[in-house]
Amino acid sequence: MSEVGSEDFEDEQGYLGEYEGERNEAGERHGQGRAVLTNGDSYQGMYEHGQRSGQGTYRFKNGARYVGEYRMNLKHGQGIFYYPDGSKYEGSWVDDQRQGHGIYTYANGDTYDGEWLQHQRHGQGAYTYHDTGSKYVGTWVVGKMESAGELIHLNYRYQGNFLNNPIGPGKYVFDIGCEQHGVYEQEDQDKVDAEEDEPVSTTILKWKPNAVTGLSHSTPARDNTSSGTYI
Q1: In the predicted model, is pLDDT for residue 164 greater than 70?
Q2: Contact indicator for 100, 115 with CB cutoff of 8 Å
């Protein structure tokens, strides 16, 4: 899974540099204008009382670009941020941070569509893996899968609780019309360290099945559409 690892860029807050545009009676930047900042960044859009407010486009000298709404010099409202690595975030901003609903397309093609809080995946959301088409739908807490969720694959899916990985009781639901119930447990596994020649203990997750049944009434049926969603 891709972390939200694209570098976050702060807009230049200074007022030096070149400016062409409208001003109010007090001489403040006010209305439509364009500024080239001393650090090489540029902004074209709306100003209110000397600050970026309203719709605008901010271009960073490293190739990043933000197109969207501002309030008091901060990204605030709806906007799209294009990162230099090819990733993109489109959605809600609050006080310069990704917050509310938004869609992040990562450089490797993975996508996250859901809720954000202070730049982190937080709340309900769906993460789709580009290479496999698998999708996690469920709860996120501070950027990690947590609590109830569903991991959807091509011919089967897993439903249960997550703590960035499946943990505790859950079930695999297969498209052929059956379910396998069980529990994910953490187990210590000893292996020999090649350099120290001493046993090293690592913790692994292990699935322990306990029953196979038909589809339960609580299991949602698969939607026969190309979107791969479930109803």
Answers
A1: yes
A2: yes
